[in-house]
Structure formats: structure tokens, C-alpha cells
Amino acid sequence: MQTTLKEKPTQQKTEIPTLKNFINGNWISSSSGKTTPNINPANTNEILCYTPLSTREETKEAIAYAKESFHKWKSTPAPVRGKMMFQAMRLLQERVEDVAIALTKEEGKILRESRGEIQRAINIMEFTAGEGRRMNGKTIPSELPNTFIYTIRQPLGVMGLITPWNFPNAIPLWKIAPALVAGNTVVFKPATITPLSAVKIAEIFEEAGFPPGVLNLVFGNGSVVGDEIVNNKDVHGISFTGSNDVGNALNEQASRRGIRVQCEMGGKNPLVILADADLNLAVEGAILGGFGSTGQRCTAASRLIIEESVAAQFTELMLQRIETMKVGDGINSATDMGPSVDEGQMNTVLSYIDIGKQDGARLLKGGKRLTNDSFANGFFVEPTLFDNVTPNMRIAQEEIFGPVVSIIRAKNFDDAVEIANGVKFGLSASLYSHDIAKIMRFSEMSEVGKVHINSATIGGEAQAPFGGSKSTGIGPREQGNEVFDFYTEIKTVYIDFTGKKRETNIY
Ligand code: UN1
To answer: What single string gives the DSSP state of each residue in 438-496?
Structure first.
């Protein structure tokens, strides 16, 4: 889809805006002349804008300004930084509808989901702003008389934040907000296919009065802008959300420089339904977890692991419920599920559906691209349900990132837990049951970063840590106050307040 100004001097090109980078408080056009179109996935005739593919030099410049503004920002008291974050939060609150519409148009998720995502970002900004007043260290008793030991939390410097298209508002904000409140400065590289959401974020910080250079936004490809951020000696930490391939490569490079790295990557999350479960509740969880955001979230419930004795009954209810789902343009309030984000993602989903069929899974529902009438210009795939999936099939092991859900039958609770844990990922797991012993054991035994009992695998609250184990995550958790374990470092201070020579132990 990549194009250049030279190659495409069309009429359309002059009418549709090309976005600008936000560097050191100024909106600046990229000098590269290269852009990529931001296409509405529900209607590919609609090009929303062009995303500039910035140069390495422009990225270096953004990093240099972030570095320059660091010392002043670091010495701004944390409660004052928090207060500014509250102001940014208020601005986002005022423009939820505008931000939600842009999000739905460029990403495809339904408007209700866009609003929900923005509310999550608001909650995170609210929580993080408050943490500005609690950027506490601790006091520690010394073994020496007249000696005071305490710790302070200090920012790291310039943070490089590299974010995906599937939560283009909340994920950037759940990195930017703690990075800034902790006193770091930021170079933010969003996904090129959801740039409007990124512009709306930068505008809010500009209007909230954050000093120039504290938050910089650079659009472009991972191989240029991302690569510079990861390898530039003036970037002191990288937080990334996206695919395992990119995250692992990025981690290798950044670790070589010895900087702090946090990667939030794939998931293959199980939703386990035991024989005693409330099956209607479990169906709602499976629909929300499996098809919410068109399955394009790392927390999606792509594996339904069901105790044999209720599998047939559950499947029947699930099929009835899928029947009621309305696929379409997310901008229409009646729509339950939007399109895949782009053609590449849709083709990945369709190829996994083929793989599932070839591997012997039974296609119960969906499985096709929708192309009639209003679907003709979009990347729509039917909500798809497979049965008779075995734990080692590719559709049960690999992240699909689309509306494809697999039913795997388990003999009993222990079998279900073994299947649930039998993947390389470890983000989220759900259990539907009222048996307290099984609930406790499941919570204990699940090899994931978060467990949901009687609710879907997705979502999370601002004040609670979020992240994954195994191949899903690298580095400390995001969100909650644990987030500051990533965005700050601790300094330990020893004060001898006798101020005189004395006998001390030497350790
Ligand atoms: C959620 O369900 O809590 O990239 C959002 C992702 C995740 C966010 C999921 N980091 O899909």
C-alpha cells in the first residue's frame, strides 16, 4: 500500500491531508516525500489521510529535543506533572466522541468499543495523574547510628514508545501517561495505519501545556523510525506493544545497549468452561472475548476449552448467539462487529481458517469473507467457530488476531488446565465455574499474567497491573502502580548526619 508523492500525484492526493510530525512543540511536515494511505477498513474508497514515512534524521531530531527537554521536565515536581496529566485527561474527556469516530474510521472497531477504549485511557490518565502525588520512595533503617537511608524514584531519560494499531488510543496513553508523570520525555512512534488517533493524543498534550520536546510524535516505518529509536544512544528505555517477531528482535537490539525494555506481545488465551458453569454467562464471555474488537486484541479468547459433558449444550447456545451478531461498518450503532483492520490482516485470518479446515477441525459457523452489497468495499470476515479442535492444531497454538474461535473439548478440570497452559503464550485466562476449589486452583496454576473468573479474558482496570508471562511479555508489568518499576529507577541515599569520622563496618 505504500506510495510516494512522486508516484501518485492524483487529484485526491491534494485534497486529502498528509499528517505532520510533532517535534519540539511544532507540527512539521516530513521531508521524505513518502507517505502511506490511511484507509477506512469498512470502506476502502475512503482514504482518511496520508501518514508520512519520516526519515532517520527526523527521528534523530525528535530524540535530540526529547533529550534537551529532559532535565527541566525531570526537575518539575511530580505532583505538578500529575496536575498537567489531569488537564490532558480533561481534554480527552471533552472530545471522546470526536476521538472515537476517528478511531472507528481508521481501525474498524465498533463505536461502542472505541468509546470504551477511550474511557480506559481516561481512567489510566486519572490514576497515573494521581500517582504524581505518590511518587514515593521509602525510608530504611540503618545498622549504623545517626544514619538515614532512603530511596527516591527518578526518571530514566528519553523513552521510546512504539505502539500498535489495535488500541491506537489506550495503548499509547498507557505508556505516555506514566512515562511523563515519572519525569521522562517521550518519542512516540504509532502504527502507520492508525495515525489520526496519534495526532489526537499529541494535540491534547500540546493544549494541556506540556512543554515543547516533552512529547514528540514521529510517524514512519519500523525499519527506519523504529530502528533509530531502538538503536539511538540517547534513548534510555523502550516500551513496545505488538507482534512477537518485532518485539523479540527489538528486545535483542535494545538489550545489547543495556537499556530497559518492555514488550507486550501475542496471546492465545483460553476461556475454560466447566460443567457447573452458568452457560449463558459463558456464552456472553466467549462472544465478547472471541469476537470483541473483531478478535484483534492480544487478550482475545481464541480457545474455548469445555468440559465434555456440557460441550454440546454450550455449542448450541453459542451458535444461536453468533446468529444474532451483526457484522458491518462500526460507525453504525447497530453493528456488533467491524472489519479486519486491513487486507493483510484479513488474508491472515482467512488463511488460518483454511489451515483449520485442512488440519481436520470442524467448521461450525462462518469461515468466509463477506463481499455482498455494503460489504463490498471492506475487509469483513464472518464470525467463525470451529469445533473438534485438538490442542496441537495450529489454530489452537498460533495467534490469529481475527474473529476465529476454536472449541476444544476437555475430559475434566485437570485436562482443561493442561490444555489451557499448553501454548507458548501466557497473557490471560478465564474460568467459568462456581466451584471455589477449582477457581482457586485455576488461578494458582494458570501460566498467565492475569486470570478472570466468570468474565471474559479481555480488558483490565487502570489501577491493576497488566501484562503476560511466557512468550507474551518481556520486562515489568504495565498499568497499576507497578508501571513505575519500568519508567523509573530507584536511587538509594545514605546520610551520615553525625558528619564526623567514626568506626564503620566495611561491606
Ligand atoms: C485488553 O483487552 O485489555 O495489544 C486490551 C493488545 C493488548 C491490549 C488488550 N496489549 O491487544
So the answer is: HHHHHHHH--SSEEEESS-S----TTS-B--EETTEESSPBSTGGGHHHHEEEEEEEEE
